[in-house]
Amino acid sequence: MNQGINHQYNYQKLTTIVNNLIDNNPLYLENLDKQKMIKEMNKIFDPNSVPDVNSISEAELTKRIKSILSLHLVSGMLNDFTPEQMQIFDESVKRGS
Asked: What domain of life is recorded for the organism (predicted)?
């Protein structure tokens, strides 16, 4: 497959997975911008970096995208913390490691 076809195929496949994950998770739906996440996934899984997304199983690709969405969700939540809440969070993380 040439790069143009790969890019279109990747875009369609990634868009479907992102839409499905966000639409079926209230936390994602409330806190993530779907279009922004689609753009982010297309940047991460760009055909230059990942020439054939088709070689990754649907389950594995969904798992990877879900992990990335969760990371964006958590990082967005941390941005809303007050300095005091961030200090409590940091201390909890330090104790947990």
From this structure: Bacteria
Token reading at 11? 């875009």
Dist CA 37 CA 47 (whole Å): 17
Confidence (pLDDT) at 77: 74
Residues 59, 53, 15, 36, Cα dihedral to 10°: 110
φ, ψ of residue 53 to 5 degrees: the values are: -60, -25
CB crowding 47-78: b at 16 or more within 10 Å, else e: beeeeebeeeeeeebbeebeebbeebbeeeee
Q: What is the pLDDT of residues 44-87, one digit of tens each?
A: 988 777 767 778 899 999 999 999 999 999 887 777 788 888 88
What is the rounded CA–CA span in Å between residue 70 and residue 18? 12
